[in-house]
Amino acid sequence: MALRVCVTGAAGQIAYSLLYSIAKGDVFGADQPLELLLLDIPPMMTIVEGVVMELSDCSLPLLKNVVATADYNVAFKDVDAAILVGAMPRKEGMERKDLLKANAKIFEGQGKVIDQIAKKTVKILVVGNPANTNCLITKSCAPSIPAANFSCMTRLDQNRAQFQIANRVGVSCDKVRNVIIWGNHSATQFPDVSHASVLDNSGKKTPVYEAVKDDAWLKGDFITTIQKRGAAVIKARKLSSAMSAAKAVGDHMRDWWFGTKPDEWVSMGVISDGSYGVPEGLVYSFPVKITDKEWSIVQGLSISDFAREKMDLTAKELQQEKETALSFLSQ
Ligand code: NAD
Ligand code: LMR
């Protein structure tokens, strides 16, 4: 049976980097037939038609059908996975939360339709910014779908952090394990390497603090580089990240589908159950392990005073975003 996968924002730049990777089997499996439902707004439909032509011309055996639509009722019907990319991206000088007003309505409308017509097992990944709060809105508008089926993307931040450490130590990125992104996909996020390690060729693990040997950098420039990386890309490209965002979508969704490796965790924004003192109900990025398509928050990690302060700060920002978002939603 073909898996029904909806991607919104199908005419946009992230989708353009993402769709080929999904359609050739990188995300849901090399043997898994797929049906793609591509949603965008009516003025963008001619562009989406061009994307559909290119997908056909890629001649991909797993891709059984592609539907281009501007109708939520077509896009979300019986979907197994929904990747919600479609939203306005920020421009130079904006913070991601400045997008809340423009984008909250999109996620409210989509949540309501997902609630009615998607499969109850649907896995929903919110990418459009501000991703955590848009995810919270979507979940709030889809009460018949289990809360655990919603997540937002902080994998790009994780990938960025892994690269920075790998580059500093002089190893390849896959040798850096268990970096954590806590909190909001924003400038308050806390990239935490206090539980992370670097592997050498024999498989021996060295804690990142020992491998890097520069606490000031790890507690200073490393953190701000990750927090401000999205803005740095916008400044350079005059467009927000797309290739790296699409790669992170694939990483996030593939791990959700197939599970995390033993002894490894990944970061994703999920509904807080109060773990680590994070207020319940916020969509907050935690380290998670995934088995049988179910994530669970990694428990029992020690939290230093330094980390506590940063984790609370980003929770506070999410609390404020939540209150602002709720004030925008129709009653
Ligand atoms: P883009 O402007 O290139 O594309 C967005 C597309 O969404 C456009 O084609 C637009 O018409 C469409 N769209 C608007 N309203 C829609 C709706 N109601 N339904 C369906 N589609 C709709 O933007 P992009 O660069 O692809 O970025 C998309 C979003 O992803 C932005 O909000 C951006 O900030 C965010 N983003 C998040 C991360 C992350 O790590 N979470 C990373 C990069 C970008
Ligand atoms: C990113 O992290 O690159 C995206 O969220 C885009 C942005 O606005 O920073």
From TrEMBL:
Keywords: NAD, Oxidoreductase, Tricarboxylic acid cycle. It is an enzyme of class 1 (oxidoreductase). Substrate binds at R90, R96, N129, R160. Residues 154-328 form the Lactate/malate dehydrogenase C-terminal domain. InterPro entries: L-lactate/malate_DH, Lactate/malate_DH_C, Lactate/malate_DH_N, Lactate_DH/Glyco_Ohase_4_C, Malate_DH_AS, Malate_DH_NAD-dep_euk, Malate_DH_type2, NAD(P)-bd_dom_sf. GO terms for molecular function: L-malate dehydrogenase (NAD+) activity. It catalyses: (S)-malate + NAD(+) = oxaloacetate + NADH + H(+). PROSITE patterns: MDH. One of its GO terms (biological process) is tricarboxylic acid cycle. The keyword Ribonucleoprotein does not apply. The keyword Oxidoreductase applies. It holds the Pfam family Ldh_1_C. NAD(+) binds at D40, N103, V127, G128, N129. The active site is at H185. Belongs to the LDH/MDH superfamily. MDH type 2 family. NCBIfam families: MalateDH-SF1, MDH_euk_cyt, PRK05442.1. This is Malate dehydrogenase.
